[in-house]
Amino acid sequence: MTMRAPASDLPIVIEDVSVRARGVTILDRISLELAAGSPTVLIGPNGAGKTTLLRLAMGLVAPSRGRVSWGSRTDAAPARRAIMFQRPAMLRRSAAGNIRYALAAAGVARAERDARVGELLSLVGLDGLGDRPARKLSGGEQQRLALARALAKEPQVLFLDEPTASLDPAATKTIEDLIRTVAARGIKVVMSTHDLGEAKRLGGDVVLLDRGRVIERGPADAFFAAPKTVEARRFIDGELLV
Per residue in 87-104, is it b (16+ CB within 10 Å) or e — as a string? Predict the structure, then answer.
């Protein structure tokens, strides 16, 4: 199955962007470039702005100031971008039906959908569970199904909001292995996590956010081995950022 999309939405360039809601600044003058390559992992305390940054880069949140561009275009519809939220809702239908719905929404021809459903179920390790009601699947299985739905549109960029939150270690490993598989197929993964071990295992580069600002960014190995800022050192050591 071919899942690599045309290089049209990368790089995503965020230039001096702030996002405010109800008088509160959620993102504060962020500048960041997301380019093709290994996964970019967002870390930071609760409320740091990780989810809002993912939604901004997806195109679901508009900047209050600044500019976002996708492949040098500021009006790019999210045809080649997909997002999986931390608590994805399962449609009241079978696992296969959930994927079939996503394929229809992505404009995949009806004649191709059954084959694609089978391929996607196989990719995420849900072979044999296509007829099971999606809401009866375990938490880890639902996360894998949500990932299959996100991949239905053959995205070039995949945003994941804490994809392993609340999963047990075995389910977490399965999702991490799937993320590696997706990245190996040429899809740019941008994900948030509260798990520093996961950031080390998956991150090509790491972005530390705090109070809506980018505190530090760098290759994952260098970031964890020799953080450049006091905030990064404290966060890695498990201290609260105040």
Answer: ebebbeebbbbbbbebbe
Model confidence at 78: pLDDT above 90: no
Coil vs helix vs strand at 45: coil
Q: Contact, 117 vs 103, CB < 8 A?
A: yes
CATH number for the domain harbouring residue 227: 3.40.50.300
Q: What is the pLDDT of residue 45?
A: 94
For residue 174, what are the domain limits? 12-89+155-236
Contact of 17 with 52, CB cutoff 8 Å:
no
What is the residue type of 62? A
pLDDT reported for residue 8: 74
Number of residues written out for the chain? 242
The structure tokens listed for 213 are 């600002």
Tell whether 103 is covered by a domain: no
pLDDT digit string (tens) for 86-99? 888 999 999 999 99
Helix runs in the chain, H state only: 50-58, 95-105, 110-123, 139-151, 169-184, 196-202, 220-225, 230-236
The pLDDT of residue 113 is above 80: yes
pLDDT value of residue 232: 95
